[in-house]
Amino acid sequence: METPRKLYIETYGCQMNFSDSQIVGSIMTDHNFETTENIAEADLIFVNTCSIRDHAEKRVRARLQEFKKYKKIKPGLIIGVLGCMAERLKSQLIEEEKMVDLIVGPDAYRDLPRLLTVAEGGQKAINVILSADETYADINPVRLDSSGISAFISIMRGCENFCSYCVVPFTRGKERSRDPETIVNEAKDLFSNGYREVTLLGQNVNSYKSESGLGFAQLMERVAQIDPGLRVRFATSHPKDLSDDLLHTISAYPNICRSIHLPVQSGSDRILKLMNRKYDRQWYMDRIEAIKKILPDSAISTDIIAGFSSETDQDHEDTLGLMRWVGYDYAFMFKYSERPGTTAEKKYKDDIPETVKSERLKQIIDLQQELSYKSNLADVGKTFEVLVERYSKKSGKELAGRNSQNKVIVFPKNDFKPGDYVNVQVTSCTTATLKGMVIQS
Ligand code: 5AD
Ligand code: SF4
Fold this sequence. Notes:
The chain is an alpha/beta fold. The chain folds into three domains: about 5-125, Rossmann fold; about 150-375, tm_1862 like domain (pyruvate-formate lyase- activating enzyme), CATH 3.80.30.20; about 385-440, CATH 2.40.50.140. The protein has 14 helices and 19 strands. The chain binds 5'-deoxyadenosine and iron/sulfur cluster.
C-alpha cells in the first residue's frame, strides 16, 4: 500500500459541521489519506463552511485567499470547499474563487474520493446534490482533535422548519432521522473507548423519528441506559416541539444533563410571526415554566437575533423583558444578517440600520452578562459533579470540566485526570467561569 497522503480539514460554523468533518475524515482515511493538523504538509485542504450569516462566509473567503500561498509552494495541492457555502453557491464559488478545485455539498461526502480523482485530472469537480435519505449512518467518524472525553453524535440531518431568516433548510435539505441502532452502537463504542459524554445533534432533535417510530425521548433513554457513567446532552431543541414527556424522561435519568438550549430568537409576538417560528411568547413562557417545574436544577440557554426586519424599539424591549423573565444562564446572540433565497430576503426589507442593530445587540449582550453573572453567583457554595475534560489553559496545576448544567468549573488538580468524575464545591465565580475546591466523597 502506498504511504497515505495528508488531509488538512478546517471547520467553521455549528457542531453539526464539526461532526460532518469527522465523517469526511473517515471517508478519506478509507481512501489512503491521514488527517494532519499541520496545513503546510497537506496534499489536500478541505474547508467545511457555514452560511448562517454573511460574516461566516466572509471569513471563509478571506481564508481561501491565504491558501493561495500553499498552492504556490505545492502546485499539486487540491483545495475543496465543503458544507453550506458549497451548497448555497454551487459552481458560482469556483468562478469567484479560482483557487478552489472541489465543491461538495453536505449530502455528497461519499462521492469525495471520485471527485478528488476528477480534480487531480485537472478538472473542477462538483457535487451539490441533496439527498432525502443520506444520514451517513454506517460511517464511523474519525475523532478529529478530540479530548477523548466528549463527542458529538449526529442523529438527524436537515431542517424543514423554514424560519424565514434561515438558510439551513436550503443548504442542508430535508429532515431525516438516522437509524437508532447505529446511534446507540456509536455511543457504546465511544464509552468503551473511554469517552464519558455524548451530545446528540440535530437542527431540531425533538422531531427525531426513526422508521420504526422511535421518538427522541425513547432514543435518548436508550443512550442513557448504556451506562450511568456516560453523560448525555442534546442540541438543539425547537420550542414548538419540546414536550413535557421529554422533560420527564430527562428527570428520570441523572446522567441526562440538566441543560436545555431553547432558542427564542425574539421576545416579540409580531417578530416571532414574521420569523415563522410557529410559537408565540406565551407558548415559549409556558415551555420555560415546564422546564423550571419538571427540572428545577436545569440550566436554560438560548439564541437571540437582534434587528430583524421591521423590529421596533418596543419589539426589542420585549426581547430584553423576556430575557429577564427567563433569567438565561447563557446565550448566543447575533445581529440579523439577511440571507439570499430565504423568505425574509424575498418578502421583508432588511431595514434596521447597522448602527441600530449594533446598539440593540450590545444591550442584549450586556443584559446577558448580568444574567450569567447572577446565575454563576447563585452557584457559589453549591457542590456539583464535574466531568474533568482537560488541564486548565492558564495553569497546569488546575483541571477544567463541566457540571451537568454545562458550566465550566476550574479546580486544583490533586490526583485527578481527564475522564474522572469529581465532586467540586464552587468557591468563587466570574461571568464566564466557576472556581471550586474538591469535596472528598
Ligand atoms: N441572521 C442572524 N442569525 C441567524 N441565525 C440563523 N440565521 C440567522 C441570520 N440570518 C441564528 C439563530 C439560530 C442560530 C444557529 O443562528 O439564532 O438559532
Ligand atoms: Fe434554521 Fe429554524 Fe431550522 Fe434552526 S429550526 S436550522 S433556525 S430553519
